[in-house]
Amino acid sequence: MSKAKLNPISTIQLIELPKINSDCQGLLTPIYGRSHVPFAINRIYYIYDIPHGSKRGAHAHRDLQQLLIAISGSFEVIVKDGYDEKSFVLNNPAQGLYIPSMIWRELINFTDGTVCLSLASLPFDENDYIRDYNEYLNIIFSR
Ligand code: TYD
Predict the structure, then answer these.
(1) Is 61 exposed, middle or buried (0-12, 13-18, 19+ CB in 10 A)?
(2) Is the beta carbon of 124 within 6 A of some atom in ligand 1?
(3) What is the pLDDT of residue 5?
(4) How far apart are CA 99 and CA 87, in angstroms?
(5) Using 50, 70 and 90 to split pLDDT, how confident is the model at 31?
(6) How far is the CA of 131 from the centre of ligand 1 (A)?
């Protein structure tokens, strides 16, 4: 297995996405891989019907990069790089949170009706997940 790359928390960024206003008949946001997001988009998935009080995430990815977007509603993303921690509130469908590999993330405080879109750089692979926080810290600090 290739060595996981370390990414500091400063590499996590809110990306402003294009907004096209068609004659005041509503907004449209197109997203291109390798342009608006710094990776080729391999897979999309979305999380919805999220019960009140749900906590999602609680893992890091060894190689996968992704962009999270609150298509509707609002939620909070807590990100950790093993040293620092930061929190982002996502509530704007024209904004995406870019998360590189090897970042621990937790998604909390979903409002009712939230839809979270994820653009991912890789296919689903359970082996790419680190789901134990102590294992995550061990990997970070053993480098
Ligand atoms: P997970 O990535 O842990 O969800 P979240 O980060 O939103 O809490 O995935 C939840 C479950 O869904 C887990 O059993 C893996 C499965 N899954 C797939 O089968 N395919 C996918 O593309 C994704 C993202 C998850």
Answers:
(1) buried
(2) yes
(3) 65
(4) 12
(5) very high
(6) 11
Query: What is the enclosing helix (H) or strand (E) of 141?
Result: helix 133-141
**59 annotated active-site:** yes
Q: Judging by DSSP bridges, how do beta strands 115-120 and 66-72 pair with one another?
A: antiparallel
Across 124-133, average pLDDT: 98
CA distance 86 to 78: 6
Provide the CB-side half-sphere exposure for 84 (13 A, CA). 9
Q: Do the Cβ atoms of 81 and 130 come closer than 8 Å?
A: no
Query: 60 CB less than 6 Å from ligand 1?
Result: no
The atom of ligand 1 lying closest to the CA of 56 is: 8
| Mutate-to-test residue for ligand 1 from 43, 45, 75, 126, highest number of ligand atoms within 8 A of CB | 45
Q: Enter the pTM of the model.
A: 0.96
Taking the alpha carbons of 4, 130, 58, 143 in that order, is the dihedral positive or negative? negative
The residue whose two tokens read 């997940």 is 129
